[in-house]
Design a protein that fits this description.
- By secondary structure, the protein is α/β, with parallel strands linked by helices.
- The chain contains 19 helices and nine strands.
- Helix 14 crosses helix 17.
- A seven-stranded mixed sheet has the order 3-2-1-4-5-6-7, with helices on both faces. A two-stranded antiparallel ribbon has the order 8-9.
- The protein has three domains: 170 residues, Rossmann fold, CATH 3.40.50.720; 254 residues, N-(1-d-carboxylethyl)-l-norvaline Dehydrogenase, domain 2 (Orthogonal Bundle), CATH 1.10.1040; 32 residues, Single alpha-helices involved in coiled-coils or other helix-helix interfaces (Up-down Bundle).
- Helices cover 54% and strands 8% of the residues.
């Protein structure tokens, strides 16, 4: 290894780590990489775009190659591996070195690591990074949290390598402690929900409207030029045109209909439940993936519970056009409620965990580079810039008007789905969230009466102050 002193270190030279190193190098910073896998080490240098990149499988060499105080990033799987990396690094670290966990660690783990390392005068940052392989290489959305002075040390590099929207970098100091990993977790929860909604619209267009893959491509491609413009709609359109290398079919039709997950959506739901913040579209998206994985059970249940659905008459050309328009409205309606729920969770978490989140800035850095980037985020950014105290964007008049315009479509689509026995849980929950949130009266007086009846949990009255309990038994 050369004796040059490098600006940054990167541990973990897999696809994401390697591409982020190349991105950093492109912007004039020198990077030293480390990986225990010799093949990864050789690949990094072989494919490096400039001479300011080196790599090694020797940890002492790696540490000695870095300028002091050191800045060491790592992109490794969340969980025990992160702790293992920190443990191996600690004997070599000195005061004011900075470690940056750029993986999807659980935010509570990040808090523990930050506190423990601070006792040894080592800085630790949880940094959310979104954009996949292409984003890492050419510009991701970056969500750094931790001490502000630690962020300031690396801000020039992060701003340089991040995605840009209107020449604005898609990175900002998110907030204290584990804020970076928390925001990335919620980002991923929103991602789960949007993908579930797109899957449901796909089945509706395929089974009710009878669209083939070419027609599906045309619909989603058209939608991507409207208010629905987003990365996920864009790639959905592209997926339908991909030919399978092994058969004459389209690849999408050859993929097993069982979804995987790595846990970040589940973490989002769990923490929202802990805070009592409703995010039902994200919750149902997690559950839907779990249901999809029960392949053998679903086959058995289909045999036991199958009842032929009323056969739907083919749609006329006019009916088909109207139905596609209704599905478009349903998707837009549900996208709004999904972002509303995610941003509401961030609003409440900011106070609960003392993060100091600025929701307009988070919406701004999600406009480019990340998986959930969408035209709608510009509206959300503008709303929170004017009303930072807003707890939910559904309160905003402009958003309310968008929902009012689109709600006929989602109601039409859900009715059609029910008639066709097509499961659309995320669309249904999106509408239910909207209808519940806007209702002045809900039937929970009955629920409170039930709670008081069997558990003496008490209740409040509408006509006077105080807490009351009744002996309900009449026999």
């Amino acid at each position: 290894m050369e004796q040059q002193q490098y600006d940054f270190g990167m541990i973990g030279l897999g696809t994401m780590g390697r591409n982020l190193v190349y991105n950093i190098s492109d912007h004039g910073f020198s990077v030293s990489g480390f990986d225990k896998n010799e093949d990864q080490v050789k690949t990094l240098v072989k494919e490096a775009p400039s001479k300011n990149v080196t790599s090694t499988s020797s940890l002492p060499e790696f540490i000695n190659s870095l300028k002091k105080p050191r800045v060491i990033m790592f992109l490794v799987p969340a969980g025990p591996i992160v702790d293992s990396v920190i443990l191996e690094l600690k004997p070599f670290l000195t005061k004011d070195d900075l470690l940056m966990d750029c993986g999807n660690s659980h935010f509570t783990d990040t808090d523990i690591r930050t506190t423990a390392l601070a006792k040894e005068n080592i800085h630790f940052m949880g940094v959310g990074v979104s954009g996949g392989e292409s984003g890492a290489r050419f510009g991701p959305s970056i969500m750094p949290g931790g001490a502000k002075e630690a962020y300031d040390r690396v801000a020039p590099m992060l701003k340089a390598v991040s995605a840009k929207v209107n020449n604005e970098p898609c990175v900002t100091y998110v907030g204290a402690g584990s804020a970076g990993h928390y925001v990335k977790m919620v980002h991923n929860g929103i991602e789960y929900a949007l993908m579930q909604l797109l899957a449901e619209t796909y089945q509706l267009l395929k089974d009710v409207a009878g669209l083939n893959n070419d027609e599906l491509h045309e619909v989603y491609d058209k939608w991507n030029k409207t208010d629905l413009q987003s990365f996920l709609v864009e790639i959905t359109a592209e997926i339908f045109t991909k030919q399978d290398d092994l058969t004459s079919n389209r690849l999408v039709d050859m993929i097993q209909a069982s979804a995987g997950q790595k846990g970040t959506g589940q973490w989002t739901s769990q923490d929202a439940l802990n805070q009592h913040i409703p995010i039902p579209v994200i919750d149902i998206a997690v559950s839907a993936r779990d249901l999809s994985a029960l392949k053998e059970e679903r086959k058995q249940v289909q045999q036991n519970l199958f009842t032929a659905s009323p056969e739907l008459a083919p749609l006329s050309s006019t009916e088909k056009t109207a139905f596609i328009d209704a599905v478009e409205q349903a998707l837009y309606f549900s996208m709004i409620t999904t972002y509303a729920q995610g941003m509401s969770l961030l609003y409440h978490a900011s106070g609960e965990y003392k993060y100091g989140l600025k929701l307009d800035e988070i919406a701004a850095i999600w406009r480019g580079g990340c998986i959930i980037r969408a035209a709608l985020l510009e509206d959300i950014r503008s709303i929170f810039a004017k009303h930072p105290e807003l707890s939910n964007i559904l309160i905003n008049d402009g958003i309310a008007k968008k929902l009012e315009t689109a709600q006929d479509g989602i109601r039409t689509v859900i009715k059609k789905a029910v008639d066709a026995s097509i499961p659309v849980p995320a669309l249904m929950v999106s509408l239910a969230y909207h209808d519940t949130y806007r209702s002045k009266w809900l039937p929970f007086n009955l629920l409170q009466a039930q709670r008081d009846y069997f558990g003496a949990h008490t209740y409040q009255r509408v006509d006077r102050d105080g807490t009351f309990h009744t002996h309900w038994e009449t026999k």
